[in-house]
Amino acid sequence: MSAANTNSQDASPRKAQGTRHERIPVHIFEDPAKVAQKVARCIAALIRAKAAEGKQTVLGLPTGSTPLGVYRELIRLHQDEGLDFSTVVTFNLDEYYPISPDSLQSYHRFIHENLLDHINVPPAQVHVMRGDLPPDMLDAFCVDYEAQIAAHGGLDLVLLGIGRSGHIGFNEPGSRRTTRTRAVILTELTRKDAASSFYGDTNVPRQAITIGVGTILNARTIILMATGEHKAGIIKRAVEGAITGEVVASFLQNHAHAAIYADRPAASALTREETPWLVRDPDWDYTMAKRAVLWLSENLGKALLRLEAADFHNNHLHTLVYAYPDIDALCLRVFDDLRRRIVYQDGLPKNERVVLFSPHPDDDVISMGGMLDKLVRNSNDIIVAYMTNGSVAVFDADVLRYLGFVEMSYREMGLSGDAMAQFRDRKKRIQRFLRSKRPGAMDLTEVQHLKANIRYSEAIAGIKVMGLSAEHARFLDLPFYQTGRIKKKPISQADIAIVLDLLHERRPHHIFVAGDLSDPHGTHRMCYVAVQSALAAYSDSAAVRPKVWLYRGAWQEWEIHKADVFMPISKTEMTRKIEAIFKHESQKDRAMFPGAHDEREFWQRARDRNTATATALNRLGLPEFYAAEAFVTSYTL
Ligand code: F6R
Fold first, then answer.
1. What's the pTM?
2. Candidate CATH numbers 3.40.50.970, 3.40.50.10320, 3.40.50.300, 3.10.560.10; the one for domain 350-389+445-634
3. What are the tens digits of pLDDT across the range 510-537?
4. CA of residue 114 to ligand 1 center, whole Å
5. How far is the CA of 94 from the centre of ligand 1 (A)?
6. Distance from Cα 350 to the centre of ligand 1, integer Å
7. Does the beta carbon of 161 sit less than 6 angstroms from any atom of ligand 1?
8. Domain boundaries for CATH 3.40.50.1360 within the chain
9. Is residue 546 in contact with ligand 1, taking CB distance under 6 Å?
10. Cα–Cα distance measured from residue 130 to residue 11, given in angstroms and rounded to the nearest whole number
């Protein structure tokens, strides 16, 4: 069997777990690490098999957040298991344009820092695009890039991520399937998604160079990876939707050896994941039955207790009726189940020790401001632990404004002499630095600290609205975040030790943790891992294991079928929550990382999300609340 075939077995449609809905084989894994391990193993097998035949392996390589785990695993295979890359030829898929190769965001720099500097691909076999070419040399460069791929016999394997626009490489919507390496204009969505790496969307280049759709489709094997809930919608369109240039990844449907490797959140909108009963006859345990009943009720716009057997029969749920012949009893059970999950202030913790872990300064009030408010009123002993300082999300202009304010205040208070002179000197230095700073460049340490202080003061102002004070805030400043860059370090023992110390000190009865495991920047996920690891160590030594409450970050809410607790919020409480969110001024009006294509401010998202939960409950036939926050308490961290 040839090397390409060895690998393509994994990408073969015959091996897919999918259904008639899925037109690209999709392999689903529980978490991004498992996706990375599997894909790295496929690549390693291909390299070894081709090397055994005395042949080179030609790889097309993406950048971005998705392939990082694969690159880490390939480096590990090289270092620990002697995987030899000397027969490998690499072609990067794309590059921003214009961009200098040494800038923090350049894909040239990325692929070296994250892969090539740590393995033994001979430099002459590395091909990266040049973002610093003069415009009149671009066309010739692109033609030559194609020629070099062809000279190597085409790509054996191309690894892809997918943009939320459906792009592969930087082939944006509208790209034809025959396109070749060329310069392209980036869409607004792609630029917004890249905003966090460039410290604001206005700094993202408008153009890019990318290999073409045709170049990708000519590859012998294609592996597209997707991780995180934010990719779920586009994965569904690529896999189950029509083949169209509007979703370029859908062209993979026609490739004989293309496959998708996704984690469960990225696959969650596929029919087999979202509504399994439409695909096969599922195991109708109560959890599945509950999901189906809720789905039916929501889809028909009919309250739970008004559903009747015919509704099930007419909507692909006849097998559920066979499993639960007393359908009224099932609907009542689901109704009662949800009703019991509605918890009013009286049912919440009272006079207990609580630690609220907030990944950034503002997640506490955005995501669970209503809960925090009630926990304070229930006389709990609360610490809000801000895990990172959020400094990268503060605009330079705000630093200058605050420095101006401090100077005015010093003058007002009659401060003069050496201290004042020293302050003015440092202020000037910072002004000079910020004025000459290249967009997207790293801040001076002093500026990073000032930005952190801005966020700290906002966090304290936020919890003051809830009746807490500065003593209730703890700024953990976890080391993994302290890179001054968007890219963070992996979670280490140092991070875990800080969280563990806090657990030992506080011995909380309850901890609240951001449970969105697939947030766009990964910080929430890393904070979750830090708490999870600390808790594992803590449980060994502690008499009382705290109850863990998972809340969701600014990007989404728990689905009704997953939430364990719905906590109603009145209009007055929502107003207080919004007032607390307002205190995060540096994130108001125009946040640096607002999340693509969502022009709403954080307070608007929080309000919309909480009122949407209340409306959904009401449509199911439960009481009508103004708003509600949702929590999961049944996961074991
Ligand atoms: C980057 C590339 C892009 C990315 C896509 C997803 O080289 O080709 O298509 O793969 O934009 O980016 P992440 O992985 O950052 O979500």
1. 0.86
2. 3.40.50.10320
3. 999 998 765 555 788 889 999 999 999 9
4. 14
5. 9
6. 47
7. yes
8. 3-273
9. no
10. 31
Identify the band that residue 196 occupies on the pLDDT scale cut at 50, 70 and 90: confident
Does the bond joining 98 to the residue before it have cis omega, within 30 degrees of 0? yes
Q: Which long-range contacts (CB under 8 A, 24 or more apart) does 101-109 make?
A: 101/128, 101/130, 101/131, 101/132, 103/438, 103/440, 104/197, 104/440, 104/441, 104/442, 104/485, 105/194, 105/197, 105/198, 105/440, 106/131, 107/63, 107/131
Domain limits, CATH 3.40.50.10320, in the chain: 350-389+445-634
pLDDT of residue 637: 63
Residue whose CA is closest, atom 4 of ligand 1? 161
Q: pLDDT (tens digit, 9 = 90+) per residue, 359-368? A: 999 999 999 9
User: What is the CATH T-level fold of the domain 3-273, as seen in this structure?
Assistant: Rossmann fold (3.40.50)
32 lines ligand 1 (CB under 6 A): no
Task: Check residue 8 and give its pLDDT.
Answer: 36
Q: Is the CB of 359 under 6 A from ligand 1?
A: no
Residue whose pair of structure tokens reads 């943790």 in the numeric block: 513
The rounded Å distance from CA 144 to ligand 1 centre is: 23
CB 187 less than 6 A from any atom of ligand 1 = no
- Assign 11 a pLDDT band (cuts: 50, 70, 90): very low
